[in-house]
């Protein structure tokens, strides 16, 4: 059995003058304080990659920067699925007795640490270095292609996709750390500038600075204990040209294995933390994971199902779309918010009874998937 004992999350947006290591350290210290632990207690670290600081020795560089000498250190790289993949690895290593308190951390000054063009170029390389990058498309372009196909197959409209952006923005309004604080409407999403048809500016996550950290421990440290109940991964392709049909998605494989490992059904969950790099990502993943029928996720958003007071509150901090996206740390913000909600410390954002959470991460262009369940045990 392993427990999530602490989380740390910086604000996202601009952090002028702060490096990736600074942002990782800020989040790590917040997580230690949250868990009531000191740097000496941490015997293992896992860290996500940074496109701004692509150091070969990032894990040990971070350890030195943060002032710890762990007995275990590793950097992990499976795109947007990295945060949950690290928590899964931490879960197994802690359960096996290799590490007692694993610090899982990621952060990046993606917005202020590099130019817009370098940032977009670096992001394209994360997913598709060999064949697709030389041809020019960027990550929004790939998700645009996926969106066109999915909309054609399942009758999803651009207005439907806009609903996800509006929901994430509504949630971000309640979080002081979010990058965006202006409410938006479906009409405003529709009128925002085209990026990669059918995706418009407000269908896309932004580029952000920020950091996030999670501590996975052998024993709970707080009054309310949250444990990892079960998890699984699936990796179906790397290059988008090798992707299987949209009906055979990795998310479906990962969630089926995770449900079996955890012994739970989707109907049992009462909070969801789902990757949302673009509106189409969130739409498809909700449907792949079984949180809505095919082509029906937008209707569920309109009915309030995923709102803070709905049956399955979703990404109540605002998600990648509106809290912000600083690489691996962006997706880890979902985990931090889930932990706050499950331990009843989300303040005015608090939802009712977040006792069983489904967390899902997607890396590349729907290439790598990690599904996980967290359970409140006391
Ligand atoms: C890799 C994996 O494994 C999986 C993944 O995570 S996939 C996702 C990886 N991330 C991405 O692909 C980033 C996607 N986003 C982008 O590339 C860019 O934000 C974009 C192309 C959508 C827009 O960039 P741009 O056109 O250069 O806009 P830019 O000139 O930077 O900003 C113009 C304004 O729009 C705002 N803005 C930029 N992006 C925004 C967004 N996504 N949403 C809302 N506002 C945005 C800016 O804050 C700025 O506002 P101000 O004028 O008030 O300062």
Automatic annotation (TrEMBL):
InterPro entries: Thiolase, Thiolase-like, Thiolase_C_2, Thiolase_N
UniProt cross-references to Gene3D superfamilies, sorted A to Z: 3.40.47.10
Transmembrane domains' residue ranges: none
Domain Thiolase N-terminal: 4-219
UniProt-listed CDD domains: SCP-x_thiolase (cd00829)
Residue ranges that the Swiss-Prot or TrEMBL entry lists as coiled coil: none
Every Thiolase C-terminal domain range: 232-373
Domain of life, per lineage: Bacteria
Protein name as it appears in the record: Thiolase family protein
Lineage start: Bacteria, Pseudomonadati, Pseudomonadota, Alphaproteobacteria, Hyphomicrobiales
């Amino acid at each position: 059995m392993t427990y999530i004992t602490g989380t740390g999350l910086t604000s996202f947006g601009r952090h002028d003058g702060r490096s990736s290591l600074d942002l990782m350290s800020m989040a790590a210290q917040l997580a230690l304080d949250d868990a009531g632990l000191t740097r000496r207690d941490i015997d293992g670290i896992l860290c996500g990659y940074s496109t701004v600081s692509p150091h070969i020795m990032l894990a040990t560089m971070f350890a030195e920067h943060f002032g710890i000498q762990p007995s275990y250190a590793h950097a992990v790289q499976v795109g947007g699925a990295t945060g949950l993949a690290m928590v899964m690895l931490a879960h197994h290593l802690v359960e096996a007795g290799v590490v007692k308190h694993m610090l899982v951390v990621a952060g990046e000054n993606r917005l202020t640490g590099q130019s817009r063009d370098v940032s977009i170029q670096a992001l394209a390389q994360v997913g598709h270095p060999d064949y697709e990058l030389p041809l020019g498309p960027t990550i929004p372009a790939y998700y645009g292609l996926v969106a066109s196909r999915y909309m054609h197959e399942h009758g999803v409209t651009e207005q439907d996709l806009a609903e996800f952006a509006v929901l994430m923005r509504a949630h971000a309004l309640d979080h002081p750390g979010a990058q965006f604080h202006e409410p938006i409407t479906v009409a405003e999403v529709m009128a925002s500038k085209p990026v990669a048809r059918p995706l418009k500016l407000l269908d896309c996550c932004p580029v952000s600075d920020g950091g996030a950290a999670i501590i996975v421990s052998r024993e709970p440290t707080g009054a309310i204990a949250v444990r990892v109940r079960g998890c699984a991964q699936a990796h179906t392709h790397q290059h988008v040209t090798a992707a299987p049909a949209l009906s055979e998605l990795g998310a479906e494989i990962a969630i089926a294995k995770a449900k079996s490992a955890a012994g739970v059904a989707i109907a049992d969950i009462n909070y969801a933390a789902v990757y949302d790099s673009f509106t189409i990502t969130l739409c498809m993943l909700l449907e792949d994971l079984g949180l809505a029928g095919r082509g029906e996720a937008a209707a569920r958003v309109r009915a309030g199902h995923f709102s803070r007071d709905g049956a399955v509150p979703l990404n109540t901090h605002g998600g990648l779309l509106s809290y912000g996206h600083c690489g691996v740390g962006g997706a880890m913000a979902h985990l931090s918010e889930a932990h706050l909600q499950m331990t009843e410390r989300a303040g005015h954002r608090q939802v009712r009874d977040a006792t069983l959470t489904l967390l899902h991460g997607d890396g590349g262009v729907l290439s790598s998937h990690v599904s996980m369940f967290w359970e409140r045990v006391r």
